[in-house]
Amino acid sequence: MRWESKARITRADLVELNEELARIMIAPCKNMEHLGGKTCPLVLGGGGTFIDPVAELHNLMQVDPLRPWESASSTPLFREHGTEPLRDDTVLHLIREIVAICGENPEEFGTHSMRIGGATALFAAGADMTVVRTMGRWSSDIYHLYVRACFERCRDWGKRAGSTHFTDVEGAIDEVDHY
Q: How far is CA 47 from the centre of its chain?
């Protein structure tokens, strides 16, 4: 498949990068190219404990700067071998290499594991479903398939359920069972 700058993220799409955030312009949803291109800002916050995308983008700009003869609008944001866009099979290989180091079965992980992990991390952090859907660029409710139940949220909701006072409607209202 040929790399096209209209459909993929370029260096020009990174419109803001400072110590606190990165803003990358993307298409609103993966399957909605007809809406006119990259009109939706993906905002990434810096300072994450496990992953800091802002620091990583700063590092990327240092180790792989735009060369004087390159156009930001036709240069992939993520590339390998100096000029080639980062390929899905390279990402898959890296994911499987990392999970193998962590002691997991690499065959159980793929590139969509990043979407699942990202959606689940947002959910575990308390993000509402609008945020999960927006950051994952889902145009339908299919994102529900990506969010996994996580121990932290189940624990928190169990505590909240066990601490919530409520009035049973059936016990408070005298129902008419027979007419």
A: 16
